[in-house]
Amino acid sequence: AEAANLPPLTEAQKNKLRHLSVVTLAAKIKCIPYSVLLEQLQLKNVRQLEDLVIEAVYADVLRGSLDQRNQRLEVDYSIGRDIRREELSTITRTLQEWCQGCEVVLSGIEEQVSRANQHKEQQLALKQQIENEVANLKKTIKVTTAAAAAATSQDPEQHLTELREPAPGTNQRQASKKTSKAKGLRGSTKIWSKSN
Question: What is the model's pTM?
Fold first, then answer.
């Protein structure tokens, strides 16, 4: 608009302005048709446009690809432009939404940590309860064993050992005693019946 009041631009300056114009378009549209680029950049043909885009890619102004079949530029990334006053409200809103999202994620993480701590406390309480029950059972077994040993006037440890494992040959002797008692009883009944 004020070209008459300004000195003429060099070709390098024109290319830089065109690169910045592509960046501005890329911020709004990710797939920019060649027709829009030709009009906005005031270029005469597609060859000049493709050369300009390739220069912008090599200058790391943007990243993307030229789709010659569909006649469009597909933008993956572009540098940022200077912020304008009218964009401040959009930026503020975006940052507020981001902060709200962060708070939601943080509260979710805190809730999970709280649940994990409760689960850990429950498991520790259960473990302590089991250990207490085991200790009580051990005490009860010792007291019972000591009482039984005192009743038979034996050493408690020896009595406990006998309860666990009977002495070798004990089962055989008891079995033979049982059979001999049974034989004696049978014999005595026979004798009793004969004498009657």
Answer: 0.45
